[in-house]
Amino acid sequence: MKLPIVAYGDPVLKKKCSDIDKDYPNLSQIIENMYETMYNASGVGLAAPQVGLPIRLFVVDTQGFEDEKPFKKTLINAQILEEKGEEWAFNEGCLSIPDIREDVWRKPNVLIRYFDENWKLHEEEITGMAARVIQHEYDHIEGKLFTDRLPLLRKTMLKSKLDSISKGKVNTDYKMKFPAINKKRS
């Protein structure tokens, strides 16, 4: 089932998420729905807060990037243990912040520990575009958005666009859920 993607301005996107256990209700269905939602929106990653759940879960599939080894994973209770290498810029976007793309500087390698959907513990070093997508989604479960990594002047210049998104003044090919504080009262 395709889920609505939470738009910029919703408090769940700024919340540090909680760990879950293998008995979390409907976890398999949530993961399946998150993949379906991500693919429907042409995304390469999707974190649980983006579908309104403040839990440490995200999915990644980088098959759309040329010259990259395919990387598809479900990461539960992820912890980045180390980021290393020389930072590089890449023009990032976010399904919760449609129509805005900005250069974000990130390190090219991450050492990460996480559980997969079968509750097998992994600790691995990931490089390249997969590492970048993981860092972006990891930021989501830490309550950060890619816009938080931008210089103050750039954030200021984007303020009106961000405000428009939070008010629902944006068109997407996927269903979105806008912050309750901006809904008209009857």
UniProtKB/TrEMBL annotation:
Q: Which UniProt keywords apply?
A: Hydrolase, Iron, Metal-binding, Protein biosynthesis
Q: Which domain of life is it from?
A: Bacteria
| EC number, UniProt record | 3.5.1.88
Q: Which reaction does it catalyse?
A: N-terminal N-formyl-L-methionyl-[peptide] + H2O = N-terminal L-methionyl-[peptide] + formate
Q: Where is the active site?
A: E137
Enzyme kind, highest EC tier: hydrolase
- Keyword Protein biosynthesis, does the record have it? yes
The GO terms describing molecular function are: peptide deformylase activity
**Record flagged with keyword Protein biosynthesis:** yes
Instruction: Please give the InterPro entries that the UniProt record associates with this protein.
Output: Peptide_deformylase, Peptide_deformylase_sf
What does it do? Removes the formyl group from the N-terminal Met of newly synthesized proteins. Requires at least a dipeptide for an efficient rate of reaction. N-terminal L-methionine is a prerequisite for activity but the enzyme has broad specificity at other positions.
What protein name does the entry list?
A: Peptide deformylase
